[in-house]
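Blackboard transcription, Thursday session:
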Amino acid sequence: MTKHFFDNRYGTGQSTLDGIIRLTDMLLAGKNVVVAGYGWCGRGVAMKARGMGSKVIVTEVDEVKALEAVMDGFQVMSMTKAAALGDLFITLTGDIHVIDKHHFKLMKSGVVICNSGHFDVEINVAALSKMAKSKREAKPLVDEYVLSNNKKIYLLAQGRLINLAGAEGHPASVMDMSFANQALCAEHIVGNYMKMDKQVYDVPARIDKNVALLKLKSMGIAIDKLTNEQKKYLSSWEIGT
Amino acid sequence: MTKHFFDNRYGTGQSTLDGIIRLTDMLLAGKNVVVAGYGWCGRGVAMKARGMGSKVIVTEVDEVKALEAVMDGFQVMSMTKAAALGDLFITLTGDIHVIDKHHFKLMKSGVVICNSGHFDVEINVAALSKMAKSKREAKPLVDEYVLSNNKKIYLLAQGRLINLAGAEGHPASVMDMSFANQALCAEHIVGNYMKMDKQVYDVPARIDKNVALLKLKSMGIAIDKLTNEQKKYLSSWEIGT
Amino acid sequence: MTKHFFDNRYGTGQSTLDGIIRLTDMLLAGKNVVVAGYGWCGRGVAMKARGMGSKVIVTEVDEVKALEAVMDGFQVMSMTKAAALGDLFITLTGDIHVIDKHHFKLMKSGVVICNSGHFDVEINVAALSKMAKSKREAKPLVDEYVLSNNKKIYLLAQGRLINLAGAEGHPASVMDMSFANQALCAEHIVGNYMKMDKQVYDVPARIDKNVALLKLKSMGIAIDKLTNEQKKYLSSWEIGT
Amino acid sequence: MTKHFFDNRYGTGQSTLDGIIRLTDMLLAGKNVVVAGYGWCGRGVAMKARGMGSKVIVTEVDEVKALEAVMDGFQVMSMTKAAALGDLFITLTGDIHVIDKHHFKLMKSGVVICNSGHFDVEINVAALSKMAKSKREAKPLVDEYVLSNNKKIYLLAQGRLINLAGAEGHPASVMDMSFANQALCAEHIVGNYMKMDKQVYDVPARIDKNVALLKLKSMGIAIDKLTNEQKKYLSSWEIGT
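(Written on the board underneath:)
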């Protein structure tokens, strides 16, 4: 949980936008920003982009996440519809060819496309290359593709992770939690490997709590503790209306 | 999930603030609003209150949720510290005596206290009554307690659910999802009870997806579907950087 | 200024949404809310509606305000385009027939229309009546107009001020500033009428400052004062890069 | 207006945070960010920082602006009080020594201080130098001052404009409006200088409208125009409630 919440949601949100701004010097306020994927990373980017004044459009294949994005106040539509509206596209789905050949055809000239998901497969760069009559490096890590109708599409970091390529990855103040998490997990494994099978385990909740507590302490934040009366109540559930 | 997300997060958020405004006619902008509990309901209320211009303080006993509230931009502190700052207190913890005798002592005169959690036990009303030298109904469902130092504390709906007492509960457009969910669950049970044990089951993901899809359709929103290429990719995980 | 800022921006924002929710019990999250006019009142409503999870569309006739709405992250378009998208329409322009006959024709069935501007002329109610094959009061202050194609349009408070009709007007905690302002202005006139011509005067900045200071004090908020060094700097402008 | 709104509010907001992130790689989510000054620039930075998940504290000397910040949901307090809480301080006041000797004394170790106002006088760098027992360049443009109690204070860009020093100034998509504005003003002066006195003139509203209209067009956004009926209404003000 501390990995997901803090590393992905908060870390990716800031570092993705940071990477885009560094490479393009684009003002986010007023822009149509299309965020593909509304998982932890996607919602982090969507929230931050809205915080910077962008009009955010979310695309999703999962119905529940799509509805959640709607209820969070985002425009939700298919990529086919979003393709014609977006000024900036960011993919964070973990899936392949989320922006594909038929989407490039629908885009406005001058759009910027990038990926902040897991791999470099989310944007179909091969299709874009094939469609383009020319390609040049407009700036380092900014490739300009000119399509047959002179429409220009700017691809950042060749479709690789924008927050690693364009910025400095996750800020240190987030990564400390990931590393603390990993360190405590390693410690846990060392202490418990005799009891463990060869399979993937979830991070024990105890470790997550510990990492969060250490982080809160480092921020000078003290929170409430359950009183005995409250613990008793939670375990009994006997009172109430 | 559709129950949690939409009923609690979005429904409770709006109806809680609605109930408070109806009973008190209080302007939320600029007020210190203390939200006890950062579960689905609590974060819904916290987000909405911020959206109305309040300065929101969150209290939590869970370290991970507390840290999440911090990273979402809320002030997080113990109730003891928050008690002296708040203008409005809303409890949504599911636990007992979250606002207790020693908290009342620290509050400013004129504060408003209410509960939007599960039962009427979150605020220690008995302790408040005992501390008060007088009590009167200032308005329907608004009880004014005068403490020995003439400090006034306003308790809404006797500490019962403010969104049911003060407003009209969840808006119909949220409850339709809950009811759809329950109807489809009932149908599921009818069709599968022979295979089911006497225990609590999670709502099948299929039903959640279905409810979300119906809701999206009713809003005229179409989303993407996985292509065959994407399905294959997701099930293989063989390509990548 | 204290009148504009606080009465209109903050007061109207909350009381308009409050009025709508009381009359319709509509969940704002996920809805397309069209706000006509981006003056003090309009932006207050737009911000608050976004804070409640709505997707907000702004219409404006003023280019600068329209651009400002874009840069604040709102969708901006003509009413003709917005008419087909909106679930809820709120007019705050101070002008006539902002929602007119040709807009009603484009709307979806089930939309809600209301006015929070100065008078009851912003919505062309006469045209709507003429177009409708039937009209009934669905609930108090909620009129259902059925058009020839069985499309239903719900008009709140007959197009009169929704925040006065549906809610309780401006919250007391905002109106106190307006009244303080008016009282201090009256005092100012009493003390200065000998020097004043028969014309409209702006509220003296001194009074605005005074009202704001009193309000801050009542909130327990202390702010910085200019030091002598700072006053001197501001009046000289001699140092700098 | 187009200069103020778009250059300062939106441009400064993004470029200031961009500059800070580039120099420090600090995660803004969860941080206490103190914004000194709530003018156009200050509120732009405050809004954007909140959008990135920061807990924002505003300091002001003007009562009306201070109250506005409160009503916008920000914590408002004196710099003396804020000094002890902040993780990051940004000055945008246009005044001298807004962060002064007695403020440095109250700060936590590890805080970051920078200026995004007009000159390099807002932070009393001379006083900080005098208080420090040592100073070193931790990174380019990041000076680490170690005070007598080993407390560390990080000053960015020697107190000069952070958005020019650390980032690339205003994004091109904002500056185009400023330049368009200046070009149209120059044209206006060429055409009208015979009628003009030697004094400072406001930019004619006509030019602002023109710049905004051109920008909206470039974004593909069309807005409503006043109908004849509406123009007549606005000039008459004879109808109404």
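Lecturer's comment: The mean pLDDT of chain B is 86.
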